[in-house]
């Protein structure tokens, strides 16, 4: 699985603040740049995903995440998808100083260190 690089977390959080009232998801690809994909652009993204290694699995999980996040305000799915088919899919929001969030980020840093 691919994990979002710790250096990208602040970029993802800033983007979440900018698009907090819009429906959609945050996408990070091999370019290591976070972009917002609006709900109206999801179908073309799903079609492209299904053509990649592990793409059908990613597309299905992404659809479920979008359904879960619909109407939940600032919480959005974040998909990190690499060309080799590895991916990480999670939910992120702009919930300020949340102890659970800090624990999750610390876990992410540990996982990243192990993958190097």
Give an overview in words.
The protein has 116 residues and is of the alpha+beta class. 44% of the residues lie in helices and 19% in strands. It has four helices and four strands. The chain has helices spanning 9-18, 42-50, 55-69, 99-115, and strands at 24-28, 34-38, 76-81, 87-92. It has a four-stranded mixed β-sheet with strand order 2-1-3-4, with helices on both faces. β1 (24-28) and β2 form a beta hairpin. The two termini are 13 Å apart.
Count the beta strands: 4
Order the strands across the largest sheet as they lie in space.
2-1-3-4
Measure the end-to-end span. Answer: 13 Å
Unreliable stretches (pLDDT < 50, length at least 5) are none
Whole-angstrom Rg? 14 Å
Number of DSSP helical runs: 4
* Class inferred from helices and paired strands: alpha+beta
Task: Give the overall shape, derived from the CA principal axes.
Answer: globular
Quickly describe the structure.
This protein is α+β, with helices and mostly antiparallel strands. It has helices spanning 9-18, 42-50, 55-69, 99-115; strands at 24-28, 34-38, 76-81, 87-92. The chain contains 4 helices and 4 strands; from the N terminus they run H-E-E-H-H-E-E-H.
Give the SSE layout.
Layout: H1 9-18, E1 24-28, E2 34-38, H2 42-50, H3 55-69, E3 76-81, E4 87-92, H4 99-115
Parallel strand pairs: 1-3
Antiparallel strand pairs: 1-2, 3-4
Helix pairs in contact: 2-3
Features:
single chain; 116 residues; 4 helices; 44% helix
């Amino acid at each position: 699985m691919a994990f979002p690089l710790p250096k990208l977390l602040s970029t993802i959080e800033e983007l979440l603040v900018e698009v907090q009232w819009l429906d959609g998801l945050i996408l990070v690809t091999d370019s290591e740049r976070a972009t917002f994909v609006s709900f109206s652009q999801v179908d073309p993204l799903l079609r492209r995903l299904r053509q990649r290694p592990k793409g059908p699995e990613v597309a299905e999980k992404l659809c479920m995440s979008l359904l879960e996040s619909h109407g939940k305000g600032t919480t959005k799915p974040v998909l990190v998808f690499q060309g080799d088919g590895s991916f990480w899919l999670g939910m992120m929001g702009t919930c300020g100083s949340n102890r659970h969030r800090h624990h999750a980020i610390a876990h992410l840093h540990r996982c990243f260190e192990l993958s190097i």
